[in-house]
Each structure stands twice: as C-alpha cells, then as structure tokens.
User: Fold these one by one.
Assistant:
Number 1:
Amino acid sequence: MGLQRLGRDTLLYGLSTLLVRGLQIFLIPVYSRALGSGEYGVVETVAIAGALVNLTIALEISQGMARYIADAPDESARRALASTAVAFAALAYAVFALAVTAFADGLAQWLLAGQAPPQTLVLAACAIAVNGVFVIVQDLLRWQFRPGSYVAAAMAYALGSALVGIWLVTVQDLGVAGVFWGQLAGALLGAGVSLSRAGGLLSRVFDVHRLRTMLRYSLPLVLSGAAVFGNLFIDRIVVRELLGLEALGVYGVTARFASVVSILAVGLQAALSPLVFRHWREPGTAVTLGRICRWYLVAMVALVGGIALLSGPIMGTLTGPAFHGGSAVLPLLTLGAMFSTLYVFAPGLFLGERTGRVAFLNVAGALVNLAAALLLTHWFGLLGAALAATIAPAFVFAGYLVLGRPWFTVPYRTPRIAFSLALVVALVLMGMAWPATPTLWDPVALASKGALWCLCLGLAVALGTDAADRHQVSQIMRALARQRSL
C-alpha cells in the first residue's frame, strides 16, 4: 500500500469534502440570518430523516458493491456489479419519493410541526432521493481510482446547491423550500458529472445473482446503518423531543461546525478504504495503517484543539445572535465527531466479512447513545446531549478495536496514540473552561490560546509519533518536492 499514492488521493478526496462541507458551513451564516431557529430546525429535521433514509432505503447496496468490486476478476464483472447496484439503488429511492408524496400531509404534520407545508416535505424527499443516487454513482469513481473526477462531481454538487440555495432563500425569499431546491439542483448536477465520468463502469446489465451476493453482505449492515444513524442523530432527536425545535436549530448549527473534523477524515477514508481492501493481505499494510493512525491523531490535536479553544469567537462571528449559545457545546461535539471517524483505522470486522458483528456493535453504541442522551439532556440540556454524542462513538471505536483483532491486527503503539488522545481531550476541556472575554477576538486570550495550542501540537509530534514515523513523512515530503521541481 503506497503512502505517496495514499497522500495524493487523500488530498484530492479531502479537497472534495472541503468543497462540500466548507460550502455547507459557509451557508450557515447566510441561512441562520435568513431563517429563524425554528425554520432551521426544519432543515435539521429533514437532514436527520435523510440520513436515516440514505443508510437504509437502498439496503446498503453501496457497501456490498464496495466489498466485491475491489476483488472482481475482470472489467466485465466490475461493470455488472456497478450497474446492478446503481439500478437497484435508483429503484429504491424512487419508491421512497413516491411513498412520501402519497403520505405527505400526515408526515409533514408529524415531522415539521407546522413550520412548513407538505409540498416542502415532498420537495425535500426528492432532494434526498436524487442525492442518494448521486452518492452511489460518485462512489464508483473512488473504486476506479479517479480522485480528480470525484472532486469534479463534488464541486458540481457543492456549487449547484450553494448558488441555487442562496439565490432562492435570500433573493426570492422562498424560506426553507429554497434550501431544498438548492440541494436538489446540486444533486442533479453532481449526478450528471459522475455519470459522465463513470460511464465505463455502467451498462444495461442487471445481474440478479450478483445482486444477491451484494445483499448477503450488505443486509446485516442495514441494521448497522440504522444504528450508525442512532449514534449520529439520537442526540438531536432527544433535543427535539425534550427541548424543542428551536433548541434543535441551535444544536444543529453547532454540529455543522463540529463536522469540520470529518473533512480530513472523509478524505482519508475515501483514499484509504480502496487501498486497504485491495492490499490488506500484503505484509506491511498493518504497519502502514498504524503509522497513518498516529499521524491522524496528531492532526486531531491541531484541528479539534483549535476549534475547542476558539469556539466562542467561531459561533459569535459566523452565526446570528439566536445561535451564539452553541459555543458552550461546540468543543464536546467536535470531540465526538473525531471519535466517530476513528473506526477506519480498525477495519478487521469488515475485512473478515463479520458484518453481523458490525451491526451488533453499532446497535450497542446506539443504545448507549440513547440512554446517555435521555439522561444527560434532562440534567444538563444541550451540554448533556453533546456529552452523549461523545461517549457513544468512543464506545463504538473501542469495540472495533477489540472485536476486529482476530482478522486484522494493527500495531498502533498504544501509549503514543493514548498520549495524543489525552492531549485532544485536555484541549477540549480547556476550551470549555476558558473564561469569557469582553470581546470575541481578545488579543491576550488569543495569544494565550495560541501558545497552548502550539505546545500541545509540539508534544503530539514528539511523543505521539516515533522516529520511524517522522522519517517516513520526511521521505514523502522530499519525494513530493522532487516531483514539483521536475
């Protein structure tokens, strides 16, 4: 498994994620000023429902496709797998959109609490459906090792959804409906670009035998996907039920800022997964994965620690006054977002095809999240929900580490990764405890926080990695410098 290729692909996939997530974060100041916290609560409610649909409605066929397309013996087999998976997903999402249209009145009253009409829910369902097809077609580009095309599709989606959404919400004053029209436009553009670039893997083939093979692998992951949904969104559901739609709006905006952490993680995962699935039997792959994990945690010291220390200025500058209270929970939500990304470094259960155990583990994590959210949100409000959203993914990551070892063992150098994790937690706690200042960007506070951040990052590099890790990175940097000079 080549580190140079991994580094290059990670940068490209990270760029695509940066475009999508970065523009979503850019939209927060726009939408949070144009929409009230209750209306933004509608956006969050639909996002929660959309996440559940994406994890379940197509029976996780994309996971089955991903597992077998890497091991396919020839191009014909890969084409049959890809075409069958995309056709099945498109049919499943079409059925979903039609079902929402048929029952729109009752669903709108239940989900949107009178904040938007049924027609808006139908529009949102169409956006969710088209986006689901776009994601699986775009994923084909990863398995063709075409990160440049993947970035182009992501750019089309991001720009389409942002430009159309901003125009309709701020100029045409369409409110919440404008957000969903933007998402639909972006998904259509992204799907068009993906189809034009991945056409070599698609044909008029629907192989029932291969569909059964993919579904045998992916069906246990439907339960797992529902549990992953629980791990990601139970805190928001509990906030909505216990604290109301306006509190959900504040919490949801804050969670969007915390999702910055996943920009690095998604880029790395998108590049890493195809390489691990293809090369995991080769000597040295486990060692390389352990090395990447240690450097990833060093990066988390910088990223999570920086967001935690600057949570007040971030929320105060980039959101409307109704959302400023989110600064108290942003550090914890960022820590939870980090824990939710770490499973990529413990792929044993996936490589051993133990998807039933994956489902069991994620269900257990969802139950932990539910119990913690109900209890802690009742006691501590939004802070309790954020704490539950941190405890649950940490529990699931520990499960992946322990249960996956029989099939794939990674030499993590436990004391080193534990040290980096401790630094991340320490910076989060300091960010939460730091006294408020009269001005958002107080220079004395910024200088103190900057010095603390630099100290922790230096300690993470020195003690969270070893000499071989640092030597490997220096070699890669020299190789990249030579390539640029040619």
Note: The CA atoms of residues 165 and 182 lie 4 Å apart.
Number 2:
Amino acid sequence: YLPEYIVADAGYGSEQNYMAIIDDFNKTPLITYGMFIKDKTRKFKSDIFNTQNWKYDELNDEFICPNNKRIGFKRYAYRNDRYGFKRDFKLYECDDCSACSLRQQCMKPNSKSNKKIMKNYNWEYFKAQINQKLSEPETKKIYSQRKIDVEPVFGFM
C-alpha cells in the first residue's frame, strides 16, 4: 500500500521518478526538483539570456532570442542518463550567431558553433505539474510537513 501523495526532497525530483510515481504507481508526487526554488526568483525570471525566458513561436516551432533571431527546430535527440534512463529532446539551433552583437553574453566565450537549445518537453511537463500541485493549499501543506516529520530525526542520530 502506498499513500496518495509521495513526498520527498529535491534529490528525488527526476523525470524517471515522476514517471514511475504517476504511470506505474498511479500516485501523486510532491517532490521538488533541483531548480525548484531558483526558477521562482526574480533574477532567474528576468535573465534575458536564460533560454527558458525566451519567446516561443508555437506555430513555427522556434524560439526567439534577445536579438530577435529565430532558433528553429533541427532534430530530435536523446540521451541516456547515468542510470540508463533515456531522455528525449528536441534540438533547436540558430542558423548564424557569428555576427550577433549579443553573442558574448548569450554563449560560452570560446564557442565555435551557433546557439543551441535542447528541450525535454516531458521534463517540462512534469515540472509544470509539480509547480501546480505545490501551489495548491492542500498539497502545499502536506509537502511542508516533510521537514517537520522527517528531517528532525537527523539531529538526534
């Protein structure tokens, strides 16, 4: 028997764990992910070079960078993480960043290629679900109990 809500800290917030809890166990995860708190900061949300803040043109499946260049879809890709879990991505790439006036701020200093964005839409979906769940009063309260019920034990070991 498992409770309706599976509660854990950010160390367990992964695409693989969310998928198992939802699909295999038919339960609701209340597990933050590594960037959960940082994602909500004003600094993070206002960083124009953070690709998560770029405009997305759904019709043309492309992002628009701070210099109004279009970063279009190029191909599908996947990566296996260290546990062998396959993560699917969509790869977007700008056609030409060589003469861009914002290149220095936008890219790594010695980058020889154009700007690339790898989007894992499955992961983005799970993050949105977690954000939504943890903003609801009932589930927010359940999650907040985790620190009270679990973590004090470490102080007495």
Note: The chain has a mean pLDDT of 91.
Number 3:
Amino acid sequence: MLLVFLAVVLFIIGATLSRRVDVSISLAAGAVAYGVAAFGPGVLAATAAAFNMSMAYVLTSLIFAMALGFLLREQKTRIASGLSALGARAAAFAIPAAIGLLPMPGGAYVSAVVVDPLYDKMGLKSHQKTFLNYWMRHIWIPVWPLFQGVLITAAVLGVSVWQVVEWAWPGALFAAAAGVAVAASLVKPVPVAGDPRDLTALWPLAAVAALSFLVPLPLAVGAVYLAYVVVNNVGRDQLAASLKYALNPRILAIIVFSLVFAQYIKESGLGAQLAQALGPYSGLAVFLIPFAVGLATGVEFTFAGLAFPPISSLIHGPALALAFAGGFLGVMLSPAHSCFVLTREYYQADVGMVYRLLAKATAAVVALSAAYYVLIFY
C-alpha cells in the first residue's frame, strides 16, 4: 500500500498546486481512492470506524474555537493596547503572536492591520513588516490546543492535546527564537501608548487554557464561548455570524477527510511499512515529509492530517517536535499560504525581499531542529 499512498499524496499535492482544485476536494478524492484501493468493499466499514468520539471531539472543539475567535476579533485594539504597555519592541513581536492565538483562516491580515501603526513608527519597510507579522502570527502552530493541527495530531496519535503540547513545544520555541533573532535588530524603541488593563481582553484564552486541565477541551471551549456571549451581551446577529463562520464547510471537510484518511492509513498498516522502508533515514523523513506536504498545500493543518498518520509510529514522543518544525516551515514557505498572500498584499511588499528574511528564519529553525535531534536521539 506504500506505492498507492505515495500516488495519492502526489495527486493531492499536484491538484492543489494547480490552483484549479481546492485542497478540501483533492483531499477527499485522494482519501476515497486510497480507501477503495486498500479495503475494496470493506471501505465502508473502515469509513464508519472513522466517525467516532475522537472525530466528534475534534470537530466540537474546532467549531467552538473558531466561533470564539470570530467574536474575539472585536477585542483586537484592546489586545494591542495592553501589549503596547510592555514597550514598543516587545509589542512588535507580541501583538501578532497574541492575535495568533485566535484560530481563524487568514488571521495574519487582522494582526497586520492592528500592528501597522506601530511598525510605521519604527520605520519598518514593507517586507520587514510582512515577515515580522507573518512569522510571529504562526509560532503557536505546534502547541496551542485550539489550533486544528494540534487537535488532528491528538486524534491521529490517540493522545490528549496536552500530551501533544508536551512533545511538540520545542518546535514552537524554535520558531519564536528564529523570529526574534532575525527581526530583533529591525525593531526600534519608540514612544508608544498602552494600557496594561487592556490585557484583560485576553481572559477568554486564559480561561480555555485553565479549564482544559479540568474538563475535556470541547466543554472548556464551549463554556468559555457561552460565557463570553453572556458577559459581553453579544447580539443575535453577531452570535449567528460567529456560528456561520465556525461552520465553514471547507474547513470542516478538510478536518473530516483528514481523519478518515488517517483511519484508512491506520487500518491498512501503512505506518509499519513506511517505518520499515525508511530504516536509518527515519529522522530525516520525520522532518521532510511534513515539510513537503505543508509546502505544497499551504494550509496550516493539512500536514498533520496527511503526513502524520503514516509516520505516527515515528513521532509518538519527542520526535513530534521535529515533525511540527518541518510542517511549520513548509507552510511558512508556501506561496499558497493565505496568510502570506494577505499580509504581503496589505503591506505591498516585494516577494523576494520577504523570502530573504524567511530564509534566514528557516535556516535558524533547521539548525535548532538538527541540534535537538542529535541531543535527543544520540
């Protein structure tokens, strides 16, 4: 089944790169093709097995998280004000990073608009603004429990989201360190007004993190969403708009077919075949396979759904940080990434100049990942 899987992945990547087929459609077609090839008439039973409590957990968490993120967008100015109280240089990194905690497709555009006045005060050029906002917006990909990739990874590996965080946190640390290292010399200490009391706008995110230690994540996010609606007296129209946003059929289709595909891979025994075929190159594959999928699709969580299932036996532990680092870099370098497109267009930045900064940060993450691999496994 290894050759069939490779053919399916190449089809998904090729269809997505053509820009004629949305990744949700190519993923659905690829998953069905693999399922039929692997199980024949038994594909229906394998498909039914995918619609389990794990999928319900992921979908419920995601829907409430996106609905909450939609409502929290109205707090973006207060969030920026509160973080500006830390000082201009810290705020230049912290504002896009904090807004990056809100799970929303194309969310880097929101942080770009909010942080632009500060970047103007610092005299940053358009490509520098683009890099700093775009990169820092995504440093949480491996560790924030509300991100789709973390939820999918937990389902694929059969562990809790906090177990994923425990294994993957070095990937987030590498990303943050690389962003700061590349941009630290660019940001200037300029006068900036901010009110630390406005940091209270982040209470819903803190509440989700705290509650998720006490109750299952879907209950935690759902409770905070309802609390936010009540505390802020959210109107009927805004409530309906948040739910409509959360029930985005494209996002839900990607999640569902990612989990169905993962179930097919699990039941077909592909993981064992791939681990045996990779042999001594497994460490490199853990990094490069998610990187390739992320680069091709440009969607922040497809590498978790496509690349992680066949290598699940290799990333059930600290190696997960390397897999997330690879997927993160692939997505960040992808010209198809919606956040890259929106941020670059907003700042009217030269693509080549942005990629020069991205290349520096990428080199830093690769170096840190290699050092981590040697430290952990040798």
Note: The chain has one domain: 52-377.
